[in-house]
């Protein structure tokens, strides 16, 4: 019997829901997967940094914004697939949420655009899977 291919290891990453006056900070992804789709800022944790430090760094690098981030509010596993459907990479994302502190949204790093968006505008955007629902759920808490 042949064995299924081994799954790639889980890579630790972060996602950040920064809010200001009821609006949420979004980025339009500049790279695959989901290039051109809107999402929350985030990325991989670097060696030696805590997940909170990774969240603060990724938020600033991708958007130029800082936020008062608290404890993690959610976690999920994201799989990136090849064209043939095989799993390319797996990410364990820890979601942080916090109120805007400073900075004006300017796309940087992997982001093509960055802006604050009212919740009512989420339905008009092509977003990464599950992101709009996650934002609404977390903002309702």
Descriptive report:
Keywords: Hydrolase. It comes from Pannonibacter anstelovis. InterPro entries: Nudix_hydrolase (IPR020476), NUDIX_hydrolase-like_dom_sf (IPR015797), NUDIX_hydrolase_CS (IPR020084), NUDIX_hydrolase_dom (IPR000086). The protein is of the alpha+beta class and 141 residues long. It has one domain: Nucleoside Triphosphate Pyrophosphohydrolase, CATH 3.90.79. Helices cover 16% and strands 42% of the residues. The mean pLDDT is 94.
Secondary structure topology:
Blueprint (H helix, E strand, L loop, with lengths): L9 E11 L2 E7 L8 E2 L2 E3 L6 H13 L2 E4 L4 E8 L5 E16 L8 E8 L12 H10 L1
Parallel strand pairs: 1-7
Antiparallel strand pairs: 1-2, 1-4, 2-3, 2-8, 5-7, 6-7
Looking at the chains present, what oligomeric state does this protein adopt? Answer: single chain
From the 3D structure, determine the CATH topology: Nucleoside Triphosphate Pyrophosphohydrolase
Number of strands: 8
Number of domains: 1
Can you identify the CATH superfamily? Nucleoside Triphosphate Pyrophosphohydrolase
Distance between the termini: 49 Å
Q: Uncertain regions: pLDDT < 50 for 5+ in a row? A: none
Which of globular, elongated, flat, extended, rod-shaped describes the shape? globular
- Helix content range of the residues, please? 10-25%
Order of helices and strands: EEEEHEEEEH
Secondary-structure class: alpha+beta
Biggest sheet overview: 8 strands, mixed
Average pLDDT over all residues: 94
Q: What is the CATH class?
A: Alpha Beta
Query: How much is the radius of gyration in Å?
Result: 15 Å
Treating each run of at least 4 consecutive H or I residues as one helix, how many helices?
2
Strand content: 35-45%
| Overall CATH architecture | Alpha-Beta Complex
């Amino acid at each position: 019997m042949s064995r299924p291919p081994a799954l790639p290891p889980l890579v630790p990453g972060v996602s950040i829901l920064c809010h200001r006056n009821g609006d949420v900070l979004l980025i339009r992804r500049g790279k695959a997967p989901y290039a051109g789709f809107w999402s929350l800022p985030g990325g991989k944790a670097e060696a030696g940094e805590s997940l909170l430090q990774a969240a603060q760094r990724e938020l600033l690098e991708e958007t130029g914004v800082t936020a008062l981030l608290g404890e993690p509010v959610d976690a999920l596993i994201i799989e990136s697939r090849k064209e043939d459907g095989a799993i390319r990479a797996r990410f364990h994302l820890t979601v942080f949420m916090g109120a805007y502190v400073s900075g004006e949204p300017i796309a940087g790093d992997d982001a093509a655009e960055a802006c604050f968006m009212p919740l009512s505008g989420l339905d008009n955007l092509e977003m990464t899977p599950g992101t709009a629902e996650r934002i609404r759920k977390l903002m309702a808490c």
